[in-house]
Amino acid sequence: MGLFSRRTVDLQPQQPFTFVVEDLFTITAVGHVLTGRVTSGVMTRGQSAELRLPGGARPVTIRRIESRRRKQEQVLAGAEAGVVLDGFGSDDVPTKPGGDHRVIDSAALRGVELIGH
């Protein structure tokens, strides 16, 4: 392979997956990033899923996956990753009082499951 050649990626077929949320970050120009671990299955960019929030489940789509500091098309069970979801916005982010304003309460999302279809 040459220095600039592209390697082909053998993607696993889309499979149901479970991703358990550990933390939440908001990154300018990226959005809300949920970090955690894929506990089963294969999570693929573009896959539909259900985020099981304390207030009820919300249908979402996997917009972006990052693992090992790189964008990924998919990650397998056991991988730690950060995901950005279409269908999960600012209104869904839990907050708590923080001085004169409200701050993100990422602890409220710890343990929430993202289940792929």
Could you explain how this protein is built, in words?
- It holds the Pfam family GTP_EFTU_D2.
- Residues 31-93 form the Translation elongation factor EFTu-like domain.
- It comes from Cellulomonas denverensis.
- GO terms for molecular function: GTP binding; translation elongation factor activity.
- The protein is built from no helices and ten strands.
- A hairpin with a 2-residue loop joins strand 8 and strand 9 (101-104).
- The model has no long low-confidence stretch (mean pLDDT 89).
- The protein starts with 16 loop residues before the first strand and ends with a strand.
- Helix content is 0%, strand content 58%.
- With 117 residues, the chain is an all-beta fold.
- It is globular and about 50 Å long.
- It has a six-stranded antiparallel beta barrel.
- It has a single domain (17-116), classed as Elongation Factor Tu (Ef-tu), domain 3 (Beta Barrel).
